[in-house]
Design goal:
Layout lengths: L19 H12 L7 H11 L5 H15 L1 E2 L14 H7 L1 E2 L1 H13 L5 E6 L18 E7 L12 E4 L3 E6 L19 E6 L2 E6 L10 E9 L5 E9 L6
């Protein structure tokens, strides 16, 4: 994780008691301008997506690049605990924290015509509560990718069908072990604030099917007369634990 939240102001929009929309408007104003692509980003997107036959394949290639080719390094000075670095800087340096990696991926997705929203979230389930809107309950940033209507969703389990925004695919660019379509266990069934130009809405992220959250361990052991335990342990994992 790479988001340090400290109280930036005593009030949001002049209100003593903020709403989730207020929190979202504040973060959108702070972060939205950081997505501007550089010529180098545009060139890299063209290179990575060359030969891809579908929009989903393009998204997968860009997501994999940010996961694995951009190192996680958190440098937070002043407002940097809240505000991402510019996408072009993250790309040039090839490192950044969670909000930096989300920003770079959002910038790259724009180049293939796919929109995305920041999602501020906490890596411990239950910290963010619907009845208590505040920036203080978040320590991580991921993306909600707005999937075009023609993208097949059969293998995409981290999906929410939103009446206003359509199909939202939640994805964590920081975790380099969990592929597009899945979610780390700590983000599943967790509340995240989806940040949009109109503000923000707290949404519950999906809980993936049990077959994708499964670990089976069997053991055949023997205890010697001398008290030594020995044997074999066999372990099988499915889903993100396997990845």
């Amino acid at each position: 994780v790479g988001l340090t939240f400290l109280p930036p102001v005593a009030k949001l929009n002049g209100k003593t008691h903020s709403t989730w929309r207020d929190v979202g408007q504040w973060y959108y104003g702070l972060a939205s301008s950081r997505r501007q692509p550089s010529p180098e980003i545009k060139q890299k997107v063209a290179e990575l997506t060359a030969g891809a036959s579908t929009t989903l394949e393009k998204i997968q290639r860009l997501a994999s690049f940010v996961q694995r080719e951009v190192r996680y390094v958190a440098i937070q000075i002043g407002i940097g605990g809240y505000q991402p670095h510019a996408a072009q800087d993250v790309f040039a340096n090839r490192y950044g924290d969670c909000k930096d990696k989300a920003t770079l991926l959002a910038s790259m997705l724009q180049e293939i015509g796919v929109d995305s929203d920041y999602v501020v979230i906490h890596t411990d389930r239950g910290v963010a509560r619907p009845e208590f809107p505040t920036v203080l309950t978040f320590n991580h940033v991921i993306l909600a990718i707005r999937l075009p209507a023609d993208v097949p969703t059969t293998s995409l389990y981290a999906l929410v069908d939103d009446p206003a925004q359509g199909k939202l695919l939640f994805f964590d660019p920081t975790n380099d072990m969990v592929p597009l379509g899945s979610l780390p266990y700590y983000l599943q069934d967790n509340y995240g604030l989806v940040v949009t130009p109109d503000g923000g809405e707290l949404k519950e992220l999906p809980l993936l099917p049990s077959i994708l959250n499964r670990l089976m361990r069997t053991a055949k052991l023997s205890l010697s007369p001398g008290g030594v335990l020995s044997g074999d342990v066999y372990e099988v994992r499915w889903g993100s634990p396997a990845t």
